[in-house]
Amino acid sequence: MTDWEFVKDRTAADGAVWRSADGLLYKRTGGEDLRAEGEFQRLVAGLGYPVPEIVDQGSESGRRFVVERAIGDTSLHEEALADAGRDGRVGHRVISTAAAVASKLLRAQARHPLPATPWFERAAFATEVLEENPDFDVPRVHEAVEHALGRLARLPTVRGHLDYGLPNVLRAGVIDWQHHGPVPLGYDVYPALDIVAFKGGGKGYGITPEQRAAYTAALDETTVSLIGRRVSEHLGDFLFVKCFFFLALMRPTDPTRHDKHLKWQYRRALFMTGLDQYESSHTIDTGTFPTLERFTAEHR
After folding, report:
1. R_g of the chain computed on alpha carbons
2. Aminoglycoside phosphotransferase domain: which residues (predicted)?
3. Are residues 50 and 164 in the same domain?
4. 61-119, pLDDT tens digit by residue?
């Protein structure tokens, strides 16, 4: 019988993550949604996606579980933190590894496209965003969404992660596929470095414009070889969708939590900054986003 060591509670999902004593296996527990996640992960593993191999799946004590082979102990997010703590900036190896893993995922996705299908509502949590922010449920926002979706319709639809970022990327692959769904090719990987800016600057590191450019150029080399075009021309479209994603479920229910109210207002400000830039140029420069600390100081 395998001995399991508690690692952490699962993020944005019910259940926990456990590691075997020898470090070779990870076990995730949760509800019925974990069954669908496990089945999806088995599917995409067979399609060549860089994901952990599932070796067991079932239920115990009324809970679902999935056991998968370890593909490493350290995410690129953790490597970036270590770099910044040691050298004051994220190292080249993190960026080049991120590009290499992203390219592997792009190749697997492009080899197995899906029929065109609606994807925006799920990927953006659009219903939740507009319910919590009814002043954004206006023609201006809907027109920008329609414009972005029209541009993104030029890209193949593929099986996506929906919550892709450095915390879910290890050197050997990508973990945590609970939010999977259809997306345009490139939606997962192209914004991966830009979304650091949505976190408010409190994650311990930043990404320089030069690093974002090098990462994007490496991905473009891959997409040119796959579909004959540089998908970076759609980065602004992707980031506009991310403006929705990072505003979802942010409105606080406790009126006494000033900190949560301020963070909600911060994400609303990023949404409007993104909308302004997207309307003007079809691009979004996350380097212009204020940090949460600066926003807080300006709105006291």
Report:
1. 19
2. 32-217
3. no
4. 888 999 999 999 899 999 999 999 998 899 999 999 999 999 999 999 999 999 999 99
DSSP assignment of 204-255 equals: S----HHHHHHHHHHHHHHHHHHHSS-GGGGHHHHHHHHHHHTTTT-S-S-T
How far apart CA 289 and CA 172 sit, in angstroms, is: 31
Q: Which of 46, 69, 92 represents a domain boundary (last residue)? A: 69
How many Å apart are CA 235 and CA 287, to the nearest integer? Answer: 14
The number of distinct structural domains making up the chain is: 2
Residue 177: phi and psi, rounded to 5, are -100, 30
Same domain, 116 and 222: yes
Q: What are the tokens at 42?
A: 């088995």
Residues 90 and 226 in one domain: yes
- Single-letter residue type at 263: K
Q: Distance from CA of residue 291 to its chain's centroid?
A: 19
Q: Which domain holds residue 115?
A: 76-298
CB 278 within 8 A of CB 284: yes
Contact 83, 54 (CB under 8 A): no
Phi and psi dihedrals of 68, rounded to 5? -135, 155
- Taking CA atoms, 191 is separated from 10, 17, 80, 209, 212, in Å, by 23, 26, 16, 13, 9
